[in-house]
Amino acid sequence: xxxxxxxxxxxxxxxxxxxxxxxxxxxxxxxxxxxxxxxxxxxxxxxxxxxxx
Length: 53
What we know:
Blueprint: H1 5-13, H2 18-28, H3 48-51
């Protein structure tokens, strides 16, 4: 389902929101969503103990 861009354009023209079409595309083509890893922010400190590492 929704294999070609022409099919997706028809749905857009029919008034179906793009986000809904994306959801349908993922669901009906058996894609698996893999969660992104948690990212940590680099924090600079002025501690001398850390500088020795």
